[in-house]
Amino acid sequence: MITFLGSTQLQLALRDATLRLRRMLDDLGAPGTGTAFPALTPEQMSGLLSELMHAGQTLRSLPQVWDEALSENISEYRKQVERLRALLPAIQQALLRERARLAVEQHQLHLVAQWADSSQQTL
Question: What HEC string does the chain produce?
Fold first, then answer.
């Protein structure tokens, strides 16, 4: 449901969304610093997606004509979205590494379970 807000409310909503997105991205860190980019936790991913959805609702209620302040808020939000876009390949690689790690762990658990089953049969 889209709520139509006044220009000042839109500016505040967009500014707040920008600050939250910037904080989330800052918490993720920067790839290319010599260490592997960490995989996002489910909470981080959920928070990021929720923030983008919420900001999307705000952006859909923008008026056709923007004043200077609203234009600046949109520009700042766009910078954060572009920053996220630049991080997406590193996020994807981190998630692929995590998936591979979990697959190895699952295989090891399967081998342990087989060993336990065969040990019980010989007793």
Answer: CCCCCCHHHHHHHHHHHHHHHHHHHHHHCCCCCCCCCCCCCHHHHHHHHHHHHHHHHHHHCCCCCCCHHHHHHHHHHHHHHHHHHHHHHHHHHHHHHHHHHHHHHHHHHHHHHHHHHHHHHHC
What integer is the mean pLDDT of 43-64? 88
Are 22 and 51 within 8 A, CB to CB?
A: no
7-39 per-position pLDDT tens digit: 788 888 899 999 999 999 988 876 555 566 777
Which tokens is 9 given? 């409310």
N- to C-terminal Cα separation, the chain: 65
Cα dist from 112 to 26, 34, 99, whole Å: 40, 35, 20
The residue ranges of every structural domain in the chain are: 7-92
